[in-house]
Amino acid sequence: AKETGLHDEL
Amino acid sequence: MNLFRLFGDMSHLASILLLLYKIQTTRSVRGLSFKTQALYVTVFVTRYLDLFYDYVSLYNSVMKTFFITSSCYVLYLMKKKYRPTNDPSIDTFRVEYLLGPCVLLSLIFNYRFTFAEILWSFSIFLESVAILPQLFMLQRTGEAEAITTHYLAALGAYRALYIPNWIYRYWMEDQVDPIAVTAGIVQTALYVDFFYVYFTKVLQGQRFELPA
Predict the structure, then answer these.
(1) Could you read off the pLDDT of B90-136 as tens digits, one per residue?
(2) Cβ-based neighbour number of residue B142 at 10 Å
(3) Contact partners, residue B177, CB within 8 Å, separation at least 6
(4) Interface touch B176/A5, C-beta < 8 Å
(5) At what angle do helices B34-47 and B132-141 cross, to 10 degrees?
(6) Does B69 have pLDDT greater than 70?
(7) Chain B residues with CB inside 8 Å of A8's CB?
(8) CB contact under 8 A, A2 and B111
């Protein structure tokens, strides 16, 4: 699994 | 977007509508912690700064804008419009004890050591404990209006639904966000006691009352 940090969640 | 997250977000939306409904119909902010509401404004403002430089989707932007404006509006209702019904003397949780550790944690755990990412991390940690002044107040007074408990239940359900959302994303999208997951599990755990009383009393038609 890759870490996101994309912050597409609220 | 998966159904767990969609229902989680809808539950979050519903919780705020319930909160506004409670204030407007009872014309009172009694039983609500100003500190918790002020912490939510802090959470939303520090997390959603990316509204200005990072576009995710229309849904994302609309929800972020709604959460910022509605939480600020609640503060206005508590401090101005219904100020006489607010009782700071029972809202005694020391928020410094939450803010300090959250600043520290965000400096240690973040995805990049940049201002925006540290603020994002801070908001995640702060959200996980922002409900504590409210739960502490509930504990102190030992009872609550049914509508207030529905607000808290919707807020707790929102957090609980994000957990299956993360499990889904881990399996289906190979995505994992360790900071959000850790803080989210802590946040959900804080509601366990509340949910126990909510299910065994409020949903059985009894008053929300804690044993003395």
Answers:
(1) 999 999 999 999 999 999 999 999 999 999 999 999 999 999 999 99
(2) 11
(3) A3, A4, A5, A9, B166
(4) no
(5) 170
(6) yes
(7) 56-57, 60
(8) no
User: Is there a contact between B175 and A2 if contact means CB atoms under 8 Å apart?
Assistant: yes
pLDDT > 70? residue A4: no
Per-residue pLDDT for A2 more than 90?
no
| pLDDT of B83 | 98
Which ipTM was obtained for this model? Answer: 0.83
**Shortest Cα–Cα distance, A9 to chain B (Å):** 8
Other Cβ atoms less than 10 A from the Cβ of B95: the count is 19
Contact A1 B174 (CB under 8 A): yes
In whole angstroms, how large is the CA radius of gyration of chain B?
Answer: 17
Going by C-alpha positions, the residue among B95, B76, B84, B79 that lies closest to residue B134 is B95
Mean of per-residue pLDDT scores for chain B: 96
Whether the CB of B112 is below 8 Å from some CB of chain A: the reply is: yes
Among B9, B174, B176, beta carbon nearest to A10:
B9
